[in-house]
Fold this protein.
Amino acid sequence: MEIVGCPRQTPMQKQRFVTAFHRNALRNTTIVFLISLLQTGPVRAAEAKIWEDFSGDKAFAHVQRLVDFGPRPAGSDALEKSRTYIEEQLRRYGWNTRRQAYTEDTPRGKTHFVNLIAQFGAQKKAASPVFLLCTHYDTKVFDTIRFVGANDGGSSTGLVLELARVIGQHPTLAGKVELVFFDGEEAFEQFSDTDGLYGSRYFARHLQGSGAKQFRGGLLFDMVGDRSLGITLPNDSPADMARDIFAAAEALKLRSYFTYLGRDLIDDHVPLNGIGIPTLDVIDFDYPWWHTADDTTDKISGSSLQIVGSIALYYLSEIALK
């Protein structure tokens, strides 16, 4: 082999030249490949797999902390401790929380309630969030049993706190989301137009009209930690959202955990849907320990929280807010 345009060389010189040529060509190709990989590969992978960052164990730890406060009915000292804990965790994750306080007439007299509303980053922002992630954090009041609501109120609150941690690592996505922790979801006696859903009704009343138009949708989480998980979407679920959440579950090969309840359900999604914010109630209503003293942490699992959290993040990042 002879290189055109070069002086006549000895065989040894030719071999050294060819070897050096190949080495430099390989090095340059490798550099170009690495630059391309840095520009595209890891960034896309990180964006595409945000759902893998969710930790069911971290969500479960939040639930355990809330349960340790004891029963948390509206107006109780335990619920105030829960509020402080939620605010502290959100602050750590980069969210700013404001208290929406109000007093309502209830079957047990006037009761003080506090919704917690959180947005990511600086409080004064150019853009407004367009999607709600909601839960209630109170527990039902009982006079005859000690009800700590590990699943009913605890599991969904722990899940939303862990969603806040993960979403907070992706500022563009976080800026599109508002977190709402409703007080007073539970009825003091029986759900009616004047008993139960105190927090979501108050929130909706003060958001209706132009305020509601900024939100394209929302997810409400309630009772999502059952060890034997089976999410049961109520019949009044927005059809497009139900289809998309099923698609998200299918994409992660977790579709078997989702089905329909077979009837409507009274929950905090109802007032939001009523003011024009399509909101899906992600709930496992097939829970034998609902509203009993046995709704304790041994009935729930981090694995179930992992399933719901992963699907929610896939739905948000790949479908709802893509």
Observations:
- The domain at 52-320 is CATH 3.40.630.10 (Aminopeptidase).
- Confidence is low (pLDDT under 50) at residues 1-47.
- The chain is about 45% helix and 15% strand.
- Residues 68 and 277 are 34 Å apart (CA to CA).
